[in-house]
Amino acid sequence: MSTVSTVNGGISFWYADEGTPAPREPLPGDTTADVCIVGGGYTGLWTAYYLKKAVPFLNITVLEARFCGYGASGRNGGWLYNGIAGRARYARLHGHDAAVRLQKAMNDTVGEVIGTAAAENIDADIHHGGVLEIAHSPAQLARLKDFHSVEIAFGETDRVLRGARETAERVHVTGAVGSTWTPHGARLHPAKLVKGLADTVEALGVTIHESTPVTEIKPKHAVTPYGTVRAPYVLRCTEGFTAGLKGHRRTWLPMNSSMIVTEPLPEALWDTIGWDGRETLGDMAHAYMYAQRTADNRIALGGRGVPYRYGSATDNDGRTRPATIEALRDLLVRFFPTTAGTRIDHAWSGVLGVPRDWCATVTLDRSTGLGWAGGYVGSGVATANLAARTLRDLIQQDSGQAGPTDLTTLPWVNHKVRRWEPEPLRWLGVHALYAAYRTADRREATSPQAGTDRIAKAADRISGRG
Ligand SMILES: Cc1cc2nc3c(=O)[nH]c(=O)nc-3n(C[C@H](O)[C@H](O)[C@H](O)COP(=O)(O)OP(=O)(O)OC[C@H]3O[C@@H](n4cnc5c(N)ncnc54)[C@H](O)[C@@H]3O)c2cc1C
Hints:
It holds the Pfam family DAO. By secondary structure, the chain is of the alpha/beta class. Helix content is 35%, strand content 20%. It contains 12 helices and 21 strands. A 9-stranded mixed sheet has the order 1-19-15-18-17-16-6-8-7. Strands 10-4-3-14-21-20 form a 6-stranded mixed sheet, covered by helices on one side. A 4-stranded mixed sheet has the order 2-13-12-11, with no helix packed on it.
């Protein structure tokens, strides 16, 4: 297998495939809006979409530093699924039933995205094949069974557990000893979705200014080098890039995730792999992998790589380290040995937002009109849609157009979290955490023990991730 010809960066394979969109005009000067949205990813664009649909006369402006979809929304693994970061903590804080409501809302969100994309004629290569997560070792299998029972306790009664043989009937992953499958997931092409969304909201009358970095957000103001947008509501939808805004260096940690994509695989090779259901595919490792079979029959596979850059820095247009490309390629071959001679066409990375307590949040501060959503910790494709509908409802409630709704009363709304430690503690902490997870994964791979490695348990406790 060769990585010599692998394109590294260039935002992502999804844009190499789809083409980068024609640029929109930057902000021409000072202006006003009813709602100003900072960031043109899924969170910002879905929010613009639902607000405009609810109140068509609203004057909405989206300010985007580069182009819509430049961030994680144009680079992710294309898992549209029902996972939400922080559910266990929300259950502890608000009770089990509240967390079940949150989970049900996430289950429904998968269908909401699929249905809305279809209604708006956004062709994002969506395939509703569910999510298949596999175990490779006794420890992973024990974790998988626990995970399966917990999901059922949170109302996902349609989830199934499969043994090694049944798993192999779906996809031949070397060494797989079991799996769990849920119907609440779909595969999609991330850039096609975000591009389609941007075009859709623009057609609805939302103003989008690209190449317009916001330097500071303050009540009723979004400040840029080209002028200021004044609006009663200013919404921060910048997820992994939030640390770049004045006053937010320690709000959410920009965590890296990296991906590779193979050349299209020939039918004969697919015969050795199976995966006809095109489920999104993951594993139960602590430094887990995620993968999809693309519409044009490639394998796109991601994992952690270098978890975090000092000082909350982000990558250079998606470039990732050659060592990360090699590590992901090795992982691919370990999963599917028959891909050993396959070309890796593209590799890239991106950042996702991690709050100090690993809990996704959506907030509208009614005293200032400032709102935000994010901290999805790698499960943002569907969660951003739920956040957007919630921001719509919170704004409608605040402006007296509606009362509380099923969404505004979900336990992740207006959740407060402390900030990350200053450097160098932040860097040291995250690198120590992922070193611990990698060690735990190595030990579990060769251990006959069924329990989760104690190093990983300690890392979960210390990091606040558990
Ligand atoms: C490699 C990778 C794989 C992933 N895989 C999955 C997956 O398979 N499934 C899943 O559920 N989640 C996944 N995620 C997470 C998911 O993609 C994100 O949580 C989600 O896309 C976040 O959307 P967003 O709109 O909040 O943020 P982004 O998509 O990051 O959008 C933020 C936007 O804000 C802009 N911006 C930043 N700063 C400023 C500023 N100062 N002024 C103006 N604009 C600004 C950026 O340019 C960007 O376009 C993955 C993430 C990565 C990086």
